[in-house]
Task: inverse folding
């Protein structure tokens, strides 16, 4: 590394407040190239100092605070809009699925329609009330209900006629009916 | 050097992030004037400096979590300001605006000397505007701040060796252009 390069590297530190060594000072006095460079960096360091620029720090900090609040508000609005749209879309899909109007494809739609039909059929059957009961009085209905309540085990099968009780002709008829 | 008085940059940034608005004002008061000089040296018109300084602080405060202290806060601000000028340059489609006419020159006893200074000022700014961006930024960080190559490298995302090469190239080019 040449003496000029070393001196060049030292110049910013000197501008910032360091002192030249005697040796460096001597080189600077002898070397025109280093002298020109020293003049250049001195002039460059002074750039803009004539402007006397000094912002009103308190006013600028307040303006920055408002600017940052607006920027955060904008960012939050955009985020809220995205999240809101996503939630609305999800809610619509859930509602459509729940009400059976969600038809992602034709095949699924057919399956869904037939499923709805059988469910309706099942509803009719489960809710069916025999029309003959309509004409019965409360007392008659109670009798019918009591009869349903009587357990099967409560009805004695003892004494019911068996095959051994049948005559030969009766037995022949029963067996012929079983063959049919 | 730059951190006397109201605490270090790191402590002010910590206070600001904790909600202390006075810390923001302290950071602007500390770094605003050199940032203005840096922007002017980099080619910004004097009437635009206040807007550029505010925008630089806005961008810095908005992304303070990105400043990890590897580079000095001021050099980090300079890098943001450099990006801002680059964006502005692109917006204006490459037209460089170097105006010295609208400077608020103070009354001087030596008008001839002032004129010489203004000419030197203009020549150096014109020279700086012709440098590649990295060369210009390394040169200004060195000359304005006396920053070490390692700090400049951390701010600009390069190596200390590369920063040193950029600096010496910048000096050589400027010497040719200014003399």
Result:
């Amino acid at each position: 590394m040449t003496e000029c390069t070393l001196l060049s590297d030292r110049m910013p530190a000197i501008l910032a407040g360091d002192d030249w060594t005697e040796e460096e000072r001597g080189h600077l006095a002898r070397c025109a190239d280093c002298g020109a460079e020293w003049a250049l960096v001195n002039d460059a360091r002074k750039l803009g100092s004539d402007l006397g620029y000094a912002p009103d720090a308190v006013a600028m900090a307040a303006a920055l605070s408002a600017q940052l609040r607006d920027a955060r508000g904008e960012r939050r609005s955009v985020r809220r809009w995205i999240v809101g749209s996503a939630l609305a879309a999800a809610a619509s899909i859930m509602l459509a699925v729940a009400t059976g109007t969600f038809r992602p494809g034709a095949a699924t739609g057919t399956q869904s329609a037939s499923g709805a039909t059988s469910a309706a059929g099942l509803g009719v059957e489960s809710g069916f009330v025999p029309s003959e009961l309509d004409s019965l009085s409360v007392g008659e209905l109670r009798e019918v209900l009591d009869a349903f309540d009587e357990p099967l085990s409560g009805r004695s099968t003892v004494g019911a006629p068996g095959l051994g009780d049948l005559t030969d002709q009766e037995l022949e008829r029963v067996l012929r009916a079983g063959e049919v | 050097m730059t951190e006397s008085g109201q605490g270090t940059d790191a402590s002010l940034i910590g206070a600001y992030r904790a909600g202390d608005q006075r810390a923001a004002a302290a950071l602007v008061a500390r770094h605003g004037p050199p940032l203005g000089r840096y922007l002017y040296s980099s080619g910004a018109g004097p009437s635009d400096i206040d807007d550029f300084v505010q925008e630089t602080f806005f961008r810095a405060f908005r992304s303070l979590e990105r400043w990890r202290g590897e580079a000095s806060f001021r050099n980090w601000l300079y890098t943001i300001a450099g990006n801002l000028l680059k964006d502005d340059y692109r917006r204006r489609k490459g037209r460089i605006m170097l105006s010295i006419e609208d400077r608020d020159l103070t009354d001087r006893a030596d008008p001839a000397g002032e004129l010489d200074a203004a000419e030197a000022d203009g020549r150096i700014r014109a020279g700086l505007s012709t440098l590649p961006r990295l060369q210009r930024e390394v040169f200004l960080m060195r000359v304005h701040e006396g920053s070490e190559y390692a700090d400049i490298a951390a701010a600009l995302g390069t190596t200390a060796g590369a920063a040193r090469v950029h600096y010496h190239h910048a000096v050589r080019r400027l010497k040719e252009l200014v003399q």
Summary: Residues 100-108 of chain B have pLDDT under 50 and may be disordered. The radius of gyration of chain B is 17 Å. DSSP finds eight helices and no strands in chain B. The first helix of chain B runs from residue 9 to 17.
